[in-house]
Amino acid sequence: MKSLLPANIDLSAVEIWQQDESRVGQQGSLTRIWARKGTRPRKIRQQQFLSTYLYGAACGESGKSFCLILPYTDTEAMQIFLDGLSKTIDKGKHAALVIDNAGWHTANDLSVPANITLVPLPPYSPELNPMECVWRWIKDRYLSNRCYKNYDDIVKQAAYGWNEFSCRTEIVKSLCARSWLCLP
C-alpha cells in the first residue's frame, strides 16, 4: 500500500478507512424473524421501486465513520462523498480509503482530495471489504422487513440505521477492523 500513498506522507498519520455503497428502498431485504416453532410468519414485501443509496465509510482502528445518503450512484455522487469525507478527516491525518472497483470509484474525472488516497480491492472480491458487514448489520436491525411510505421515509429510516451504527464506536471497530488491513 505504501507505493499508493504520496511519498511525503508519514505512515503514522495514515488511517485506513473502508468505503462502500448500499441501496435501501421499497424492494428491500428480508431477514429472519422469531416465530413459534411450526409456524410460517408472513412479512410484507413492497413491490414499488423507490430507493436511495447509503455512501458509507468507517475506520476500524479509531471507530470513526461517515455517511451520506444520496439518490444515485455515479461519479458525481462519489465526488460529493469524497469531498464530505475529506472535511471529517482530522487535520494532519491522511485516509487510505479501501474501495471496490465500481466504475464511479475509478472514473478519470473524479478529483480525489489531497488527504485521501484510494486503495482498490482486487476485482470480484467484495468479501474483503468490511463495509459489507456493516450493511448487513444495519439492514438486519433497522431496514429489513419494512414498508416505506415514500422516499422521505426511506431516507429517514436509512439515516436512523446509520446513526445507530455510527454512535456505537465499539460496533464500528468490531465490524471494520481486520488484522490483515494494516500498514507495514
Number of helices: 4
CATH architecture: 2-Layer Sandwich
* Quaternary structure of the protein: single chain
Within the largest sheet, what's the order of strands? Answer: 3-2-1-4-5
Question: From the helix content, strand content and strand pairing, which structural class follows?
Answer: alpha/beta
Give the biggest sheet: 5 strands, mixed
The value of Rg in angstroms is 18 Å
Average pLDDT metric = 88
CATH class: Alpha Beta
Question: What would CATH call the homologous superfamily?
Answer: Ribonuclease H-like superfamily/Ribonuclease H
List the helices and strands and how they pair.
Layout: E1 14-25, E2 51-59, E3 65-70, H1 75-88, E4 94-99, E5 116-120, H2 131-143, H3 151-166, H4 169-176
Descriptive report:
By secondary structure, this protein is an alpha/beta fold. The protein has a single domain (12-26, 48-176), classed as Ribonuclease H-like superfamily/Ribonuclease H (Nucleotidyltransferase, domain 5). The protein is built from 4 helices and 5 strands, in the order E-E-E-H-E-E-H-H-H. The chain has helices spanning 75-88, 131-143, 151-166, 169-176; strands at residues 14-25, 51-59, 65-70, 94-99, 116-120. The protein has a 5-stranded mixed β-sheet with strand order 3-2-1-4-5, with helices on both faces. Helix 2 (131-143) packs across helix 3. The radius of gyration is 18 Å and the shape is globular. It starts with 13 loop residues before the first strand and ends in an 8-residue tail after the last helix. The mean pLDDT is 88.
Quick recap of the structure?
The chain has helices at 75-88, 131-143, 151-166, 169-176; strands at residues 14-25, 51-59, 65-70, 94-99, 116-120.
